[in-house]
Write a structure and sequence with these properties.
two-stranded parallel sheet, two-stranded antiparallel sheet, single chain, mainly alpha, electron transfer activity, heme binding, metal-binding
């Protein structure tokens, strides 16, 4: 089929499906830990995981909370038809994959893009404020979702 792209997918030992996006996300976290890029958080008395999760919460509150409830503190915000972060991590077995691939899931592509991606088309609806995320932002949001999942158990 001309014009259709397929995305490469791999299975992990735990049968979790991986895509190039999720592989890149995991690689960047490991690289940051190996190179000591996350070490300043430890100097503040926080583990690097806690600091990354805190950053993820801040990014989620800034960009995701206009549609999602992202923390118990903002439980009265968001759009009622949009799942909250807490419900997704508690109720969905594939929550990790959903968070890792949210940029490709509708409606996110309409208003989100990575910082190095081409700008969105000029004919995009003016009512959708564009959100530009970095790979570090994605890593932080994933860390925050993992922390939510750990507290939900």
């Amino acid at each position: 089929m001309a014009g259709h792209e397929t995305q490469t997918r791999w299975k992990t030992a735990t049968s979790r499906e991986l895509t190039p996006t999720t592989l890149a996300a995991g690689t960047l976290i490991k690289l940051g830990l190996v190179l000591g890029l996350l070490a300043p958080a430890q100097a503040l008395g926080q583990s690097s995981d806690d600091a990354l999760a805190q950053r993820g919460k801040a990014v989620a509150q800034l960009h995701c909370a206009r549609c999602h409830v992202v923390s118990p503190e903002n439980r009265m915000t968001g759009i009622s038809s949009t799942p909250s972060f807490m419900i997704m991590v508690a109720a969905l077995e594939d929550w990790h994959d959903r968070f890792a691939t949210f940029l490709a899931r509708r409606p996110h592509p309409a208003h989100l893009r990575f910082e190095n991606a081409p700008p969105r088309p000029q004919d995009s609806p003016a009512t959708l404020a564009e959100v530009v995320l970095s790979q570090d932002d994605l890593e932080a949001i994933l860390a925050y979702a993992e922390k939510l999942a750990a507290t939900a158990r």
